[in-house]
Structure formats: C-alpha cells, structure tokens
Amino acid sequence: MIELPDRPGPNGIEPSLMDYGFTLEGALGGASVRIDRPGSRFMASVSYPLMQPEVARVFVARLIRAKSEGLRIPYPLLRLSQNGSGAPVVDGADQSGSTINLRGFNPGFQFREGGWLSIEDASGQHYLHNVAALTTAASDGRMALPIAPMLRAPFADGASVHVAKPMIEGVIEGESADWTLRVDHLTQLSFTIKEAA
C-alpha cells in the first residue's frame, strides 16, 4: 500500500458516498421502502497545489505505483480535533450493523456527530466511517459508537481504530493516473481514490 508524502498536503478534496442500497418504489402508489445493504463506502477526488519538480517527482512516482498497489491517504478533519482519544480498539469480534463497540478511549472522550474514524483490519486495510451521533466514552473507556455506512468487514477483537488521523484507502479510479507538466516547470497533480472494500 502506497502513502504519499505529508508535504505538501492536498489543497482540495471532494468526498462522496458510494451507496449500494436502493429505494424500492411501491406498486400502484404504495409507500417507497428504503433497502440498506452493507458495502456502501467512500471515494474522494483529491487535488494538490502546484509543485516544484524535485517534490513532484516523488509524488508522481508513488502515484504510478499506487495504480497497481493501492493508495492510503489521511482523511482531512479540517478544524475538527480528535486528539486525546487514547488507544481505541474494536471491542468484540465479528460485529455488524451501524453501531460498533470500542474500548481503550480516555474516559470522557467525545466523538462529535460528523467526526471520522478508520478501522484497520488484520491485513492493514483501512475502512473509513462517519460518526452518526455525539457519543461519550464511559469511565471504563468503552463506547458503543453509531456510524455510517454500515460495517462491511468482520473486524477482529482488538483491531486498531484510527481517530486522530483517519485514513481513506483504496484504488485510483479510472484507467490512468494523470499529472500535468506546465510550461512554468511546475507540476499539477490530481486523482480520485475509491475505497476498494
């Protein structure tokens, strides 16, 4: 799995949800029914500021490798600080649904609605999730956290949870990896990353 250098960071990210559920329309004017299915995940179009050639060469080399090996980048929290969480992990194996039990938080740590986390499976793959409601860790460091989309992997007990620096990981979308070499000798780089699992 390829990671890009920390500097420079992206100057723009356009995230979106790939929804694998659907709405079943009622026959003859009946009520519509929403069918949610596991598998919904995120993708993001990412752009970087103009780069000097010596910096851009490293980014381009890693982007080329990421096309076949996959890419992992931090999901930007902007002004939301999620530091001070402790060392959270999954609390109990093979969970499913839209709530995940976690342990290892500092007592009283609060996840705000709209926060982000990634859960890392045994192979090192990250799965990005959004926090669905304000939730506070209990005095024993445990938390039942409502998330979206639904869990899409059977995580092991003790699987790592990334709070201060959640990651989006997956494949580079499309048939090519592109960058622009400009006449002013600067390089422009953008791509779309799509969670693969």
Which tags fit this structure?
single chain, 197 residues, mainly beta, six-stranded antiparallel sheet
Short description:
By secondary structure, the protein is mainly beta. Helices cover 9% and strands 40% of the residues.
Provide the structure class.
mainly beta
Mean pLDDT: 93
Q: What is the CA-CA span between the terminal residues?
A: 14 Å
Oligomer: single chain
Q: What is the number of helical segments per DSSP (H or I, 4+ residues)?
A: 1
- How many strands, which pairing sense, and closed or not: the largest β-sheet? 7 strands, mixed
Number of strands: 17
Taken as a percent bin, the fraction of beta residues is: 35-45%
What helical percentage do the residues reach? under 10%
Q: Low-confidence spans: pLDDT under 50, at least 5 residues?
A: none
Q: Specify Rg, calculated over alpha carbons.
A: 19 Å
Task: State the order of secondary-structure elements, H for helix, E for strand.
Answer: EEEEEHEEEEEEEEEEEE
Morphology call: globular
Structure, described:
The protein is mainly beta and 197 residues long. The strands form four sheets. Strands 1, 2, 5, 6, 15, 16 and 17 form a seven-stranded mixed β-sheet that branches. It starts with a strand and ends with a strand. The mean pLDDT is 93.
Furnish the topology, listing elements before pairings.
Layout lengths: L1 E2 L8 E7 L3 E3 L8 E3 L5 E7 L5 H17 L1 E4 L11 E5 L8 E7 L4 E2 L4 E5 L5 E6 L3 E2 L6 E6 L12 E2 L4 E6 L6 E3 L5 E9 L2
Parallel strand pairs: 1-6
Antiparallel strand pairs: 2-5, 3-4, 5-17, 6-15, 7-8, 8-13, 9-12, 10-11, 10-14, 11-13, 15-17, 16-17
